[in-house]
Write a structure and sequence with these properties.
This protein is an alpha+beta fold. The chain has 14 helices and 23 strands. The chain folds into four domains: 93 residues, 2-Layer Sandwich (TATA-Binding Protein); 81 residues, Roll (Nuclear Transport Factor 2, Chain: A); 111 residues, Elastase, domain 1, CATH 3.10.170; 181 residues, Neutral Protease, domain 2 (Orthogonal Bundle), CATH 1.10.390. The protein is globular and about 60 Å long. The chain starts with 9 loop residues before the first strand and ends in a 9-residue tail after the last helix.
């Protein structure tokens, strides 16, 4: 959870991300045959090919690269433009994430996802790709010319010492603004040095800065401040220093430890446990193993948090909570809601699965996935207030002085869009506002998928929490890092069909028809107007 003030996505080059423009909605609609559905963008380029439930696109023995070779030209590219980035095991199959390259250098956010069943046959291919041709990848600036700049920038932003952050070695990459804008790529890329920074404590946050590889100018800045062994520390409404991290020796409560006299400590401990149980029970995903962190002198992986904290730049008491890649930091009272804790921990999950970039539409989907899995945890853990009147409210258990922050059943209650064409769709330049407000489209889709209802000309039969959770979890693992709602329009139905084929979760073809209605009702196939 983030406040709607805070991160601002900054573009300081002439190749700033393009303004989103209205697209021909028909161009994004799928073309369906008896066994295959093909999706295209507004320029007519293929973006996804999906097999019908119980069918496959291509039989095989699990060689995803061979599958890609068979279909790459349908997407306007050659298989030699891709390298395998990661292989993820899924219920009933595997997702293989390919990274697009030009002249041997990766194109940031440009990825192709191949989904295979247990036999190794291809179920779907989809991607968010650049039209960039091979170019000269020789930078004018050396890595040393930009080294240290990102570390200094994020230290200044968080008002902490640069030594509290670790900077990775600069990496050459191509930047295609169209990928992030959700518009068809025209191949207009620029060579950049990508520099990533990670915090060494819970006090700050890291991110990534792109520097022009010839001028050294900042092109794009992305903050990673995402507002089961457990360690919970109590700051007692004091400022957290740049060297603070919740180590076991300083913790008010660690795994198996006695109940604390501080309510926020116990809330965080219990709700960490509830969220961990939800992910483990429903998806076999171990939160501690996957997103837990270690600390100096405390080499055990733990889910870590500091409660009742104050952070420079947020005032004291801090009215916020955030995930920073190492753990969670809560202002007073913010640990009291299980959906809020589930939301923040789910940012860590996203970081380690789809890797959705925290900007533009991918950032909005990132926020929505945190709301979705936070609320799914809330609705199944038996904790807090889950009465009908607040069933889809985010933060209903927060103190009254803070109050509910979003509605997933009716995002417009808080001036958030419930469909892409909504007048509430945010088109401004404040990235924090953009990702939080425009998450409403994904949130409305989750509500409709679970509970159903009539909306925007579609009458939908709800699938219930268990079935919907499997679809969203598969989507979490098969979205590209630069995903747009148009991609989610493809991935949600494809996820349902793959689960039907695999016999997972009791899903049926009739259920997938309802998913089709959900994405249509929320207009994910449209490109937002500027």
């Amino acid at each position: 959870m983030h406040t709607r003030l805070g991160l601002v996505l900054r573009f300081t080059s002439v190749l700033a991300v393009a303004v989103l423009v209205a697209a021909n909605p028909a161009a994004a609609d799928p073309k369906a045959g008896d066994d295959v559905t093909t999706y295209s963008d507004s320029a007519g380029r293929v973006t996804a090919i999906v097999a019908a439930p119980g069918k496959t696109l291509r039989t095989g023995t699990g060689d995803a690269t061979a599958h890609l070779k068979a279909y790459a030209r349908r997407f306007g590219l050659n298989a030699k433009h891709f390298v395998v980035e990661r292989v993820t095991a899924l219920p009933g199959g595997t997702a293989v994430r390919f990274q697009q390259q030009a002249a041997g250098v990766p194109v940031l956010g440009a990825q192709m996802i191949a989904v295979l069943d247990d036999s190794g046959s291809l179920l779907s291919l989809h991607g968010n790709l650049s039209a960039a041709a091979a170019k000269d990848a020789k930078p004018g600036k050396k890595a040393g010319d930009v080294r240290g700049l990102a570390q200094q920038a994020f230290a200044a932003e968080a008002q902490i010492a640069a030594a509290a952050l670790e900077e990775a070695e600069p990496q050459l990459a191509w930047f295609d603004p169209a990928i992030w804008a959700g518009t068809p790529s025209k191949g207009q890329v620029r060579l950049v040095w990508s520099v990533k920074v990670e915090p060494t404590s819970l006090a700050g946050w890291g991110g990534e800065i792109l520097f022009d590889a010839f001028s050294g100018a900042e092109v794009l800045k992305l903050s990673h401040k995402h507002e089961i062994s457990r360690a919970i520390c109590d700051a007692n409404t004091t400022y957290v220093s740049s060297s603070s991290i919740c180590l076991a020796k300083n913790a008010s409560r660690i795994e198996g430890g006695a109940v604390s006299t501080v309510a926020d400590v116990n809330y965080a401990y219990d709700y960490f446990g509830a969220t961990s149980t939800y992910y483990q029970t429903n998806f076999g995903y171990d939160l501690t193993a996957n997103i837990g962190s270690t600390g100096k002198g405390d080499n055990v992986k733990r889910l870590r948090a500091i409660v009742r904290a104050c952070v420079a730049g947020y005032g004291c008491p801090m009215q916020n909570a955030f995930w920073n890649g190492k753990g969670m930091t809560f202002g007073p009272g913010f640990a009291s809601a299980d959906d809020v804790i589930g939301h923040e921990l789910s940012h860590g999950v996203t970081e380690h699965t789809s890797g959705l970039t925290y900007s533009s539409q991918s950032g909005a989907i990132n926020e929505s996935l945190s709301d979705i899995f936070g609320e799914f945890t809330d609705l199944t853990d038996g904790l807090g207030n889950d009465s009908a009147g607040v069933r889809w409210d985010m933060g209903e258990d927060l103190p009254a002085s803070i109050g509910v922050i979003r509605s997933m059943s009716d995002p417009t209650r808080f001036s958030d869009p419930d469909k892409v064409s909504s007048s509430y769709w945010y088109t401004g330049t404040n990235n924090s506002a953009y990702v939080h407000i425009n998450s409403g489209v994904g949130n409305k889709a989750a509500f409709l998928m679970v509970d159903g209802g009539t909306f925007n000309g579609q009458t939908i039969t709800g699938l219930g929490l268990a079935k919907a959770a499997q679809i969203w979890w598969r989507a979490q693992n098969t979205l590209t890092s630069s995903a747009t709602y148009n991609e989610l329009n493809t991935v949600l139905p494809a996820s349902c069909r793959a689960l039907v084929t695999a016999g997972i979760g009791g899903l049926t073809s009739a259920d997938c028809t309802q998913v089709d209605k959900v994405v249509l009702a929320t207009e994910m196939h449209l490109t937002p107007a500027a």
